[in-house]
Model the fold of this input.
Amino acid sequence: MLRLVYYEIRKNYLRSYVLAAILLFLVLNACMIYRGYVSGDGLMGYFMPHTRDTKVEWDFYHRMHRQLDGPLTADKARYVSDEYERLSALTADGTYNEQGQTDTYTGHIWNDYVMITKYFYEPMKYAASYEKEIEQVVVKAKDNVSFYQNYNNSYEQAKNKYIQDHYSGRKIPVFYDGKPWELLFNYRFSDLLILLLMLLGLVPIYAHEKETKMDDLMMSSRRGKGNMGLAKVLSAFIYIACLLLMFSGVNLATFAALYRLSGAGMPVYAIEAYQYTPVSLSVGGFYILLILLKMIGLAVAGLGLCLLSALFQRVIYPYLLGVLLFISGLYASGYLASVEAGYMVWALVSPFSLLKGHELLIDLLGVNIGYTFVLRLTVCVILQLIISIVLYGVIRLFSTSSRFSRSTGFAVKEGA
Amino acid sequence: MELRLEHIKKRYGKQCALDDFGATLSEGVYGLLGHNGAGKTTLISILIGILEATEGRILLDGVDVKQMGTRYLDRIGYLPQYPLFYKNFRTDEFLKYMCALKAIPRSLVSSRIEEVLEQVNLTAAYKKRVGALSGGMRQRLGIAQAILNRPDILVLDEPTAGLDPGERIRFRNIISRLSKDKLVLLATHIVPDVEHIAKEILILNKGRLVMQGSPEQLEKQVEGKVWDVIVAEDEIEEWVESYQVRNVKRLDGEFLLRIVSDEAPSGRSHQVRPSLEDVFLSIFEK
Done:
């Protein structure tokens, strides 16, 4: 079996045009991240552009983070608070003078005030007050449990119980720059490139066998008849996993090199946008979880492509239908936070929803299944596992015949 | 070894691609002749286990091949029609892949590959890319992969299609050598491919086995019915409409026609020794 998997990889993916496309897309991906870094795109303009004009601000930004990053202490909080108070008082006259001034961090006081407020005072305030804020949410949830109990609303009861169980005891003991992590979680251009490479590598997986007449040779040989379907699917998973690891690695390395990612061990709710996330993982662990979810989503999408490849004699049709599948799947995944059941089901059935794991986990998104609260993510993963089993079965059915009407003549049994 | 095909029938809806085919085959070359669409590929597909017959059974040495499972596939070598293989593979890589498909133990792979490449005279192309091989070399590679598992039954579907005359002769010689201890079933619609090497010819027409026998036996079927006649150019049209004209050859200002006919077509004609192509024509032009 391993030999067959190796040859499947050699046959379909270790081709010069596939390798060249991977290399080209990796470089393009890094360039896109750099472009966003320079222009300050993403997070609705939270970050300044990286230009010669903003060099002073960025130097100050990094200097301050070097000084403040690490455990969140009273001294650090006091220092930031004092600076905020001082600069607030200096700018209280409302003149917002931007003329060059001495004894400032960035050239003038107003700029210092904006920088300190936006990048340090507010984030530190959020981190310091999170424990108290979330405790209030837990208390409210506890009250809600009693409230809904009186009205026999099992779903809301279960939802609030979930909040009670998963949100209590949370606190942010450290201060790091979480925004670059948020930017990394939201970055999805690499997903598009992976999907294109999947089209390139997976569409020929069965169709090419038919074009080269190799399908008949396989079907008339012992291993070809028995193990080929599994070998092909396994090789497709390996290809997808390699693409995902390569692109995720490049994303991580490029973001780390440009934005100086730090605090991989801080809880993911330390990023303000994720304050109500249902998971209590570290930021690094959360990134790994997102990769795993993407792997499941891409694997199911890959199985869809394999099926299209198995259905047609010529590669052109699976290519066209594959693009259609991707577009419709991505469109459906846009409804994953929808409150309308019909749209939500479409989104959960779409494997592309798992490419947006950060959106599924940014807030507490659940589904009412028999008046029980179940995380949408859990439902989506289970649905994808069911879909993948069905797809694999159908692929086996179609791939054992090069034409729809064919069926195997002999039982596949070793040395029967 | 004996391969017996009993009452094989294959239907696609209302269409019958193969109708009550029966034959008993043993070692040696068998030519399976028939026009395109006669049912050759359907029969081959059933024989190599990629298509299930609607009716009938295949027995190998008295055992139903369905009972044998994949053990039956171990005894079969197959070369499909117009194979392209994988252009990005090297010859040795492709054969190693085929060894993996045929479940040949790793310890035997190298020796088997050397052995088959020598048999088909492709040793020099060991490291060549499949995409760089000529049509003839690729067909020989096809034979090489088919015999990797040392099969008892070798099934070749239109193996000489598109080959130049030199390669066709070389190919026929290879097949002759291989048939010493194997059953070789060679499907073709090109009569000369099997005329001189086949032990027996099976002629399929519209899904039915219409004739079976050695080339000599088949030729006897049209003995006394093949004629040569010399005609003028303006007479050709008339002759073609009235008789089964198998060949038209230009002579000095006149034309030599080869005709299959029960009766002498004219006083000018003279009887000639029949060939297998005459048999073929007499069946399909009826």
User: Anything to note?
Assistant: Chain A touches chain B through 38 residues (CB under 8 Å). Chain A is about 70% helix and 5% strand.
